[in-house]
Specification:
two-stranded antiparallel sheet; single chain; 12 helices; mainly alpha; about 260 residues
Length: about 260
């Protein structure tokens, strides 16, 4: 097997130090949700290219660092800009791997340059994900909602305007909420009807905070990392549980009976 084709077990070994909660089952689940699509050998074994690995790494970072639901991650990763950046990361990693094999002074220089380039591209990815300081007009433009509906979302506590000196702005997550709200609105569901989701989230936050608080109180770097890992896993589990419960509750309607 070439250096650019890895088995699922090799991918697990490659990423487990960076993502402590990763398992083969989780990789398979992400594949079943259409977020990754490794090739298969004739015997049916998965073959992960460097591009597949970088795509998987980016997905796991969004789950761990930003607690994004899989639907939002898929929408972002399918965008042209993110896809291009992930491809660049894969090219850099592949070049870096060849440089490590060369074991020469010049290859060491290339390795350093590759790491710097990868760091810069990673920061660009993070900046795109975290883009904040958005005005109400920008939130409205990106989501397709009117100013009146943006005001309703804020009035009902679904988004929050942050005052920064003489300016006010919204976070990128406000765009996500507004975009989802626009989808609801297309089905006749007004922002005021979405307060039930806000209340459910507040209850869930209370539950999750109780579980991680013992780690947070330790105030050590290792405990902080453990709390973040645990929180990311709990958020993912909560998302999957809500979807499963909704499907069960609406099974008759979903089956068209």
């Amino acid at each position: 097997m070439s250096s650019t084709n890895r088995s699922i077990g090799q991918v697990l070994d490659l990423l487990k130090d960076e993502f402590s909660d990763i398992t083969i089952s989780k990789i398979r689940f992400l594949e079943s949700q259409g977020l990754i699509d490794p090739e298969r050998s004739r015997s049916g074994y998965r073959k992960f290219t460097e591009a597949d690995v970088q795509r998987l790494r980016w997905i796991l970072e969004q789950q761990r660092d930003h607690f994004l639901p899989l639907k939002v991650i898929k929408e972002r990763i399918d965008s042209a800009d993110v896809a291009e950046l992930i491809a660049d990361l894969a090219d850099t990693a592949d070049t870096t791997g060849k440089s490590e094999d060369a074991k020469s002074p010049s290859s060491a220089k290339n390795l350093s340059g590759g790491n710097n380039q990868r760091s810069q591209q990673h920061n660009l990815l993070q900046a795109q994900t975290n883009s904040g300081s958005l005005t109400a007009a920008e939130v409205a433009e990106k989501s397709g909602l009117s100013f009146a509906h943006i005001a309703d979302l804020e009035r009902f506590g679904l988004i929050q305007c942050v005052a920064d000196g003489t300016q006010s702005h919204y976070s990128h997550e406000a765009v996500v909420v507004a975009t989802v709200a626009a989808g609801f609105l297309g089905h006749g569901v007004e922002p005021r009807h979405l307060r039930a989701y806000k209340s459910a989230v507040e209850r869930e936050v209370g539950l999750l905070e109780q579980r991680i608080m013992p780690l947070v109180m330790q105030r050590t770097p290792s405990a902080r990392q453990a709390s973040q890992d645990a929180l990311g896993e709990l958020v993912n589990l909560g998302s999957e549980l809500r979807l499963a419960l909704l499907r069960m509750a609406l099974a008759n309607h979903l089956q068209g009976s």
